[in-house]
Amino acid sequence: MEEINNLPREWVDHYTQNRFMLSDPVIRWVYSQTGAIRWSEIQIEDPQRILLQAKSFGLRYGLAVSVFDNNPEGQRSFGTFARSDREFDDAEIRVLKAYVTRLHNEKAPPTNITQAELEALSMVKDGLRLKQIAHDLGVSEGAVKQRLKNAKRKLGAQTSAQAVTRAQEFGLI
Known about the structure:
Keywords: DNA-binding, Transcription, Transcription regulation. This is LuxR family transcriptional regulator. One of its GO terms (molecular function) is DNA binding. It holds the Pfam family Autoind_bind. The protein is mainly alpha-helical. It has 2 domains: about 10-105, Transcription factor LuxR-like, autoinducer-binding domain (Beta-Lactamase, 2-Layer Sandwich); about 115-165, Arc Repressor Mutant, subunit A (Orthogonal Bundle). It is built from 8 helices and 3 strands, in the order H-H-E-H-E-E-H-H-H-H-H. It has helices at about 10-15, 25-30, 50-55, 90-105, 115-125, 130-135, 140-155, 160-170, and strands spanning about 35-40, 60-70, 75-85. The chain has a 3-stranded antiparallel beta sheet. A hairpin with a 7-residue loop joins strand 2 (about 60-70) and strand 3 (about 75-85). Helix 6 packs across helix 7 (about 140-155). The protein is elongated, with a radius of gyration of 22 Å. The two termini are about 15 Å apart.
């Protein structure tokens, strides 16, 4: 859902022009494993010598972190980190793993939102007013307001419109 890329522009251009993504051993590792691993410990073939090429751009030592919580949507978060001076130490690995895990959890859809709350949000998305939503659902306006209030809280939204946007981003509605 989000990409943060602070790698050297020259490397990103080289990587993209050579279409390394599908054969990159680091990317292959993050999509097949969870946890954290130094690039030097990855035991996946690198026939295009991508990691060797990365060194020529100052990316000599690297770390891959992959987080997957087995949710039905199959969402995975990962981070790759590189430096030129030395391997990442165990304390740095713990910090970076915690960072990627925190970002993953912040971007994960809520699992406790109810079908009734999603239904009300979907109707707001369609432009219906509270009175019409209540009528169509056969409930009171107060019940609709409560559903929307609960949905906003669960989605971390201030307004119903913001809740609708977040629910759409998560693919909930």
